[in-house]
C-alpha cells in the first residue's frame, strides 16, 4: 500500500466514529442494526474494500475490529466468526455478509462462541432464531439435524409462542449440545 493522504485518514476516522457511536446505541437498545445505521455500515464497507471487489477478507476484518475498539483480535477467532456468516464460503465477506458480521460483533466478542453463534444465526436481526436459521447455523457447524429434531428443539427449547428461540433459549440449546 502506498502513502495515505490526510483526507483518507480523516475519512477513516470519521467513519470509525460514526460506527462506534452507533455501536453504543445498538448495545444499549439491544436491537439489530437499524436503517439509519445501515448507511454508515455500507459507507464503512466501501471504505475498507480498498480493492473495490465488493468483498473484504479476514485481515481487513481484524483491522476494522481494532479500529473500532483499539483491541487486538486473534486471527483464528475472527476467521471463525467470519466463517459463520460467509454464506457463499469464499472466505471473503460481501456487503450482506459484512453487515451480519458487524451485527455479530456489536453483540458478541469473537471469542464468545455461544453468543457469536446466536447472532450469526439471527440473519434477520430479530433477536430470535427461527427453524430455518437454526438449520443454517447447524449446517455451518457440520451438525446434521432432521426436521423432526428441529421441531423438537424449537418446541422444547423455544420460549416464544411462534416457535422461535430467544437468546436465553439458544443458550440452553448450546449448553445441552456442546
TrEMBL record:
Signal sequence bounds: none
Name of protein: EF hand domain-containing protein
Domain EF-hand: 36-71, 73-108
Keywords from the named record: Calcium, Repeat
Domain of life of the source: Eukaryota
GO CC terms: myosin II complex
Organism, as annotated: Hexamita inflata
PANTHER family recorded: CALMODULIN LIKE 3, MYOSIN LIGHT CHAIN 1, 3
Amino acid at each position: 500500500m502506498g502513502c495515505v493522504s490526510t483526507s483518507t485518514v480523516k475519512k477513516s476516522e470519521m467513519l470509525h466514529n460514526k460506527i462506534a457511536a452507533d455501536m453504543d446505541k445498538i448495545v444499549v437498545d439491544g436491537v439489530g442494526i437499524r436503517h439509519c445505521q445501515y448507511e454508515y455500515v455500507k459507507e464503512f464497507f466501501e471504505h475498507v474494500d480498498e480493492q473495490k471487489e465488493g468483498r473484504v477478507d479476514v485481515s481487513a476484518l481484524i483491522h476494522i475490529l481494532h479500529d473500532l475498539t483499539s483491541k487486538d483480535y486473534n486471527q483464528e477467532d475472527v476467521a471463525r466468526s467470519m466463517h459463520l456468516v460467509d454464506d457463499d464460503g469464499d472466505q471473503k465477506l460481501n456487503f450482506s455478509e459484512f453487515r451480519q458480521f458487524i451485527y455479530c460483533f456489536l453483540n458478541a466478542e469473537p471469542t464468545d462462541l455461544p453468543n457469536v453463534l446466536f447472532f450469526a444465526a439471527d440473519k434477520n436481526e430479530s433477536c430470535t432464531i427461527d427453524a430455518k436459521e437454526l438449520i443454517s447455523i447447524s449446517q455451518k457447524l457440520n451438525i446434521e439435524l432432521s426436521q423432526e429434531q428441529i421441531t423438537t428443539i424449537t418446541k422444547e427449547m423455544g420460549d416464544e409462542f411462534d416457535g422461535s428461540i430467544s437468546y436465553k433459549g439458544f443458550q440452553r440449546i448450546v449448553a445441552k449440545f456442546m
